[in-house]
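User: My advisor asked me to double-check a structure prediction for RRP12 N-terminal HEAT domain-containing protein before group meeting. I don't want to rely on an old file, so could you generate it fresh from this sequence?
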Amino acid sequence: MQIGYKQESCSKSMISEGGVSRISQFTACTNPNFDAVHRIWNDCVTNSMIPIKVVVPGTETDVEYFAALMTALEGTSINEPCRTAAIAFLLQVIVKKVPKEVLQAQFMRTVQILYTKMLENSEQSEGSPLKYLLSILGVVLRAQPTRVWNSASTRNIVVSVTALCAHDKPWVRTMARRVVRAVLTDPVTAMENGLHAAASGVGMFVQQQLQAALGSKGGDMTTVRYLCLLEGVMHKMPSTLFKQLAETILKSFTIADPMVKCSALQCLYRCLQRQPCDAALSIETNVLLVKALTQLSPPCEDVTVCAYWMQALAEAHVCLTAKDPYRYCCSNSYISSKLFPSA
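Assistant: Sure, here is a fresh prediction for RRP12 N-terminal HEAT domain-containing protein from the sequence you gave:
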C-alpha cells in the first residue's frame, strides 16, 4: 500500500447490502437453518457439502430437506467417509427443526439408516461421520413417545450407543455420552418410578464392561471412560443394578492407578450429587455405601485421592440425610451401629 493513498472502504457487509455469500451463490441455498454452514468454508467436510446442497434445492421446507438428505445418506458408500460426514452434518443441522410428529412417523426407517451408517463408520479413521450420526440419532430418540421404549430393539439401540462411549476418538465418546445421558435422564419418557426403560440394558452392559476391564491388563482407560459415562446416568439405574454398579466402582478403587481411583470416587460423588430417588438408591444401600466408603479411607499422603474420597463420603451422608432425616440421620446411635457394629 502506498503512503498517502486513500483507500475506499465500506463499513457495510455483503449481507447488509442484500448480497449473498459465495456458497449461497453457488448452491442457491436460502434456507436460514444452514447459515452456520455458510460461515465455514475451508474444510474437507464443508467442501463435500457443496455438491450435496446443489442437489437439494434451497426452496424446500425443513421436512423435505430432511427427507432428501436421509435419502442421500442412505446412498453413500462405505468408501466415502467425507461425503457421509457432510450429509450427516447437514442432517444434524436440520433435524432439530423437523417436527416431532415427522420424526415419530419415520422413526423405524430413520433409525435403520442411521444405525447402518454408524456400523459402517465405526472403524473408520475419520471420526466426523460417527460424531454427526450420533448427534442426529440423539435428536430422533428424544423425539419418541414413551410407548416406543417398550420395544427391546429400541432399547438395544441405546446399548449400542453406550458401547461407543469407550471409542478411541474423543469427540465420538463425548457425543455418545451426550446421547445416552439425554435419553436416560429425559423426564418426558421416564416411567412412573422416574427411571427410563432403557436404563437396565445400559446398566448391565456397563457393568459387564467394567468387570471385564478390571479383570484385564491394560483396562484402566476403558474403566475410566465408562466411569465418566456412569457419573451422569447411574442415578437413573434400578436399585439392584445401582448396588451392583456401586460395588464394582468400589472394587475399581483397589486398583493401584490413582487415575482410576479418582475417577471411581468422582463417579460416586457426581452421581450422589444428583440425589438418586428411592427407586435407584434405597436407604439400605445408601447406608452400606457410607460404610464402605468409610472403610476405604485412603492414606493422608495421597492428597488428590483423599480429596475425592472426602467429597464422595460427604455426598453419601447428604443423600442419607435427605432420604429420611428424622428416622435415620437425627439418630447418632443408628449411624454408629451401621458404621461401627462392634462399638
